[in-house]
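pasting input
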Amino acid sequence: MNGGGMPSDGTERGAGGPAEVASYEPVIGLEIHVQLRTRTKMFCSCPLSFGEPPNTHTCPVCLGLPGSLPVANAEAIHYGLMIGLAVGSELAPRSIFHRKNYFYPDLPKGYQISQYDEPLCSGGRLGEVRIHRVHLEEDAAKLTHVGSSGRIHGSDASVVDFNRGGTPLAEIVTEPDVRSAEQASEWLRLLRTTLRQLGVSDVNMEEGSLRCDANISIRPVGTTQLGTKTELKNMNSFRFIERGIRAEVARQEALLRAGETVTQETLHFDPRTEAITSLRSKEEAHDYRYFPEPDLPPVRITNEMLHRARTAMPELPAARETRFASVLGLNVESARLLSWRAELGDYFEAALDAGASMHPPAGAQPLANWISELTARHDGDDPADSKVTPQALATLVGLVGSKKLTQGGAKQVLDRLVAEGGDPAAIVDAESLGAVGGADELAPVVRAALEANPDVAAKLRDGDMKPIGVIVGYVMKETRGRADGGEVTAIVRAELGL
Amino acid sequence: MLDRSEVLHVARLARLRLDDEEVDRMAGELSSILGHIAAIAALDLDDVPPTSHVVEVESALRADEPGPCLDRDVALAQAPAVQDGGFLVPSPQAG
Amino acid sequence: MDVQEIIGLTAAQAIAAIERGDLDAVELFSAYRRRAEEDELGAFTWVAEHLPADMHADGPLRGVPLAVKDLFCTAGIPSQSGSKILEGYLPPYTATSVARLEHAGATIVGKTNQDEFAMGSSNENSAFGPVLNPWDRTRVPGGSSGGSAAAVAAGLAPWALGTDTGGSIRQPAALCGIVGLKPTYGTVSRYGMIAFASSLDQAGPLTRDVTDAALLYRHMVGTDPNDATAVGHPEEIRLPTAERLDGLRLGVPTELTSGEGLEPGVLAAFEATLETARGLGATIEECSLHSAPHALSAYYVIAPAEASSNLARFDGVRYGLRREADDLVSMYTGTRHDGFGAEVKRRILIGTYALSSGYYDAYYGRAQRVRTLIAREFASVFERCDLVVTPTSPGVAFELGAKTADPLAMYLNDSFTVPMSLAGIPAISIPCGLSEDLPVGFQLAGPAFSENRILDAAHALERAIGFDGSPARTRTGATS
C-alpha cells in the first residue's frame, strides 16, 4: 500500500523557518513488505517460485484470467496473526480485503488485493518503535526491461513473469518513531530477527523477501509539528537503507536551509551514485478507488486460529535478551546484540551447548566477547557461515579460561581458525602457541629483560613502577605473546625483591 | 452534472480513450444517469451499515496445499505478444 | 422419433425417453446441434461441430444438450462474453458450474449470445450482433442472457445456462415466454463466469418449464474450493410436485406494482395470475418494500463500480485484443477504446466515478447502505409472507432499437428484478400469459435458500396457467 488515501503519519506542510534553525531532527516511519514463507500463493494454490523459468508457476487466478476468483491462504493469515502477536498488535476478529485499483503490467487483474481500513492487526510495538498496522496483500509480478523489441515497433519493451505474482506479503507499517538512519537499520535488524524467529519469512533483503520503504521528514529539534514527508522506495539492503535515509535527510535539510520547501513525492535512491531521483511524475495522480473485495468474504479470526498462532510463537528477541542477561549473566550490550541478531544468538547458544567445560554464567560473557572477535574477523553477517565451528570457538574460550592460552595467543589462534578452520588445541600444539607460565619458564626471560634495560631496572628498584611496560613488552616479544602480563609483573617484582 | 473535463478525468483513471464525440455523448448520458441515481442522496442512511457481502461465509479459507500450474505454453497461448517466455509489453518507463 | 417430436420434449421428458430406450442421446444431440447450426435468431456465438468425445451419457442428465451463455469459460471453446475485446478467446479451464453439469451428463451444444459482459436488457449490446425474439423477430429477446432465452424458446436447445446480475435471467425468460431461475447468491459457484458485478452475479437455468429448472439447478449447486463465496445449498433441490398453493401467503409489494411504466397488458396478466393463485388456495396480501424505488439507483452504482474493477484486467497484456502502441498507456487506452462497446464504456465510467476520490461516500457508500435497507425490508416482509410476487418486467418485448438511444429508459426494464439481486435472494420468472401476442413473466421471490418453496409454487401455478410456448418453436421451425 503506497499511502494513497491511507491513514498514515502526518504530512502537514511547513516545518519551521529556514535561517535560525540550529539543527534538524529526522522523523522516519518505515513500511516493510515481507514475503511470507507459505507453500502456496496468497490467493491460489500455485507453489511459490524460487528462480524457476518465467511463467511456470501460474494458474488462471494469478494470471488474472477472466472468470478466475481468489481464495485466501489460511497459512498466510496464520503467519499474519503470529506477526501481530509478536509485536503486540490488536488482532481484528473480523478484517476485510479491499481492491486497490491501478493499471500496471505487473498487476494482472488491474487491482491488487490488499487491506485498507479493516486490517488484520492494528497497533503494537517492537523495540522503541510503535507499530501502526500489519496487513496482508499479494505481491506483484516481475517486470524485466528488455530494451528495444522488434515486436513493438522497435520501441522500448518489458517482459512480464507472473511467477512471483500473488506471493503472500505482510505489510508492516510503523509510526514515525525512528529518528536516525542508524536507528532505522538497527531496528530493521530487530524486525528481521523477529520475523526469522517466527519462521514466517526468509527475510532475505537481497532476494527481495524483505523490502523497506521509508517515509522521511525533518523538523527543527525541539518542535513537534511534522514536516512534509517523502517516500524512499524499495531499499534492498541494510547498508542502502542507512545511506539512503542519510542522503535524503541531508537533501531535505539543504532545501530548508536554502529557504526552499520539501515536495511530497516518491523517491528512488541509487546506491551506486548516491543520487536521489523522483519515481513518479506528479501529474499522474493516483486514485486507487479502494472498495471491499466482493470475491472474498470477511476474514473471521476464530478461537482455534488464535490458539494455533499463540502455540506456534517461539522465543522472541525481547524474551531472549532477558534470558541472556538474567540467566546467563551477560552484560546489557552483549545480551542485546546476541538477541537482536538471531544468527549471533544462535551461534552463541550452539557454542554454549558444545562447550562442556564452560559453566555459565562464568563462561558465557567471555564467549559473547569472543563472538564479537569472530564477527570482526569474519566477512559476513552470520558466524555460522565462517570456518570456525561453535565447537571450535567453545574450545578456544575454554583454553583461555583455563589459562592454557593467553588473550593474545587466542587471537592468533582465532586468525588461523578464520582462515583455515580446524581444532584450536591442535593449532596451539602445532604452532607452540600455548601459554608460557610459571617462574621456571618466565624468570630467565625476565632476568634477561632487566639486564637488557638497566636504567629501567634502576627506576623499578627505586619504586617507580611506570616503566614496567618496557619489561613486560620485552617478555611478550620473547614469548610471542604467550605469557600472561599479570604473571610477568609478579615475577619482575619477585626478581627485584619488591 | 458531469462536464467534459470530468469525463476525461474518469476515462483517464479507467485507461479508456474516448473519441471527441464520445466525450460529449458520455457527458450527457452519464449526467442523466447520475441525476437519477442522485435520489439516494436524500435518504437518511446514517444508522444503516453498508452491505458488501450478502452471504456471510464462516470459513472460506484455503489450506496451504500446492495445486497444479498451467504449462507455460498454455499460459502464454492467448497473449498478443510473447518474448523470452514472458508477456511482452511496451515499457512503462518509455514515452 | 422425428425432429418435431424430439424438440417437443422438455429436458426431463427427453431424459425419461432415453431411459426408456425410446430416444438415443446421440440422436437427441444431433437434432439440436443441427437446429443450433441453422439458428437464424443470432442466438449462438459458437455451435459444436460434432459430438464431444467425453459425453457423460451415463450421468443423470443422460447426455441431454445444453446451451451455455458465452461468459462461462469453457476450455478450448470460445468464451467471449459478447465482447470484441475477447473475440476468439479460448480459456484453459472450464467454469465450475459447467463442469458440474457436464459431469452430471449435460453436453454442450453451443455458446449463446449475450449483451457484452452481461450489461444490457435487450441483447443489443453484443459485439456479435443482436438476438431476435422468436415470438416476433422485430423485437428483442431481453438480456443479458438473450441468446440463452431465445435458444430455449425457439427449441434450438432444450435448456440453457444463463447468469443474472440485476435480472439477466428472469427478464429475457419473461420476454421469451420461458422459465428463468435466479438462485440465492452463493449457491452456485461463480468460478469461471467472466465477472460483471461480483457481489450480484449468479448463474441459473433458463428452461422450458419449472421441472427442468429444478433439475438443472440441482446439478449446479454446491460449494467450490475455487470460490470463497460459494456456500452451496442447505437442502437437496427436489423436483417440484405441488399442484396446490393452500396456505401459501403471497405478498404483492405496492411500490413495485402500482408504479408508472407498467404496461396495462402486463398488469392484466399479472392480476389474472394472482386470481389463479387464489384459486389454488393462496392468500394474496399487499406488502411494502419502501426502499424498492431506490433499488435501481443503488444497483446502477454498485454494479458499474464492481464492473469498472472487474474489467480492468482487459488490458491487452495476457489475452484478448491489443491495440499496439509505442508506449504503455496508449496501448492500454487504445485497446480498451477499440475493445469495449458503448454500454460497457458507459458503465466503466459511472463505476470509476462512483469509486473515485471524493465521490465514494456519496455514491458507492450510500448505495451499499441502500442495499442493507432493501435486504432488511425483504426480511421483514418474509415474516408475514412466504413469497413476494411481481411482474418480471414492466413491459413485453420491445422493438429492436426502441431504447438504444436512451440508456436510462433501458435501465428501467430492471426495476422489478433488481431489488432481489441486491438482497441476494432467489427469484423465478414463469410465463403467465400474453399481452399483444407476446409473453408476460410472473416473478416469485423468496427468502435466501427457499428455492424448493419457490419451485413448488411456480410448478403449481405453471400447471394451472397452462401457458403454451410452442408458437415460438414452430415459428422458428417453419423457417428452417
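fyi Residues 24-308 of chain A form one domain.
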